[in-house]
Amino acid sequence: MAVTETPVTDAAQSPRMSKATHQRLIDIGVPVGTAFALLVIWQVGVRLFGVPQYIAPAPTDILGVFVSEFPLLMRNFWPTLIEAISGFFIGNMTAILIAVAFVHSRSVERAFFPIAVFINTIPILAIAPILVLIFGPGMTAKVVIAALICFFPTLVNMVRGLQSVSPQTLELARILSASKSEVFWKIRLPSSLPFLFSALKIASTTCVIGAIVGEWIGANVGLGALIIESTFNFRSPLLYATVFVSSGLSVLLFASVSIAEKLIIRW
Amino acid sequence: MKFGDFTALRDISLDIEAGEFWTILGPSGCGKSTMLRLVSDLVPPASGSVEILGKTTEAARLAREFAFVFQDATLLPWRSALKNVELPLEIGRKRGITIPTGDRTPHELLELVGLKGRENALPHELSGGMRQRVAIARALVCQPKLLLMDEPFGALDEMTRDHLNLQLLDIWKETGTTILFVTHSIPEAIFLGQKVLMLKANPGRIKEVVEIGLPFPREIALREAPDFNAYCGRLRKLLEDC
After folding, report:
1. pTM of the prediction?
2. Which of A244, B102, B192, B235 could staple B143 via S-S, CB 3.0–4.6 A?
């Protein structure tokens, strides 16, 4: 069972190290370079063909607006962030609790799963106006929409995760005379975490979509409201800048969930 | 220790003395695993009863009189080797159940199975043989009087298997526990067991109990001995007749 490692001399190791560093540079450099090249093509193309700014602004125009309108962008960034995060927590917590109920009782699953599927089949764009009508133009409607969009993927993954325990592990629990709650806390819940994090990664980007869609329907602040406003006023560079901020928000939430996953799931 | 008559396997009645090492052989589908599952209260007998030290299997299970080692190590992947060994001590503690603890701490058990220094390793960082040794240490943590092993080394390579066979004999000698060991391998059954229980298929019944008169301690070289090969031949013949 002993593993014999081939001894590596320093002389042999250092070129290999630099090769690894070289590889890393290529891994980072290629996508960054490609993105930069595309921006240059965009810039040159827009200027070369004299495309009007309200149809397609050049990257430098967008950057200019991003700097000059930064306070405006931030003023609209925070509400969307709060709505997205609140929706993320409420939607996922609800999904987790319902998944636990489903795994606990088959009849609850039989009664409510079809309803959950039905809710998921309603396009979010169709249900959003209804929710705005119910909850009014404040933040609540946006939070509910963001929560709703997170809900279903987490429910499905969490149910699968809680059921992912092998039959032998359950036999082990039985031999140890473990109670239902011990099986849940010590075996089922930790087993489900990798599945849960897959769902949370999806939810971290979709909750931003939910918040923005909610703001489209009726809001005076938020990135979604700013998108609508700048589109109607032909302020295309501001529109583009808002779109980039929105995707930046999604990336931020996705990265936070990924970091949490790395810290929690070591196996 | 006594097995009553049970019908899932028909008319099996056996008395196993405390401290004995029994191996169970038989063709596929003869109910070897079922037998261990009956003893360990994982499946109820259709009729008849199984007794362990004068207790029902349920009472024995609640008192942690026996432990089970599966073919797969069934470690919890998020727990370190040590934490996996400690799992049986945690189950039931909050409910106020008195958990029998052995003479050996989880640390000492990991040392006993040769994993000193790997206490904090996660299961995926260990080899298949090491994982199975963690599972054995976990089975021993409540100092069971009976150890049930269902092809525990079946998925391992031959070298690892030989090594673990020797180690299991050492552990048996050290702990004095009774062992029921199901295997597919005739040489393994002879090498480990004091007695080999040969089962017959359709329905599962006892074909024969063969006493292995080879002396302990046993070494790997024993496998070349003429006596050993004579037992192999005899058991192979019995297995063919099943």
Report:
1. 0.83
2. B102
